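Support request, please re-run this one:
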Amino acid sequence: MKSGHTHNRLGLAQGLAAHYYCGTAGTATEYTESQWRELLTKAYAMDGIIAGHRAILDEYDQSARSSC
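Re-run finished. Output below.
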């Protein structure tokens, strides 16, 4: 790309993968009730994170080409 020359790169993104690892409670099948509540609380917090990402995508993709 030449200096000072910009391109619209919105069409280049083909996907977005967001990962969140809370991994603080037991194993996949063995955990206490307290650890279960902690995991549910962290999972619920993901809703806000996803909504925030969606808002950013919508701001830059006003034609709604991206979907969740």
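The chain has one helix and no strands. The first helix runs from residue 33 to 60.
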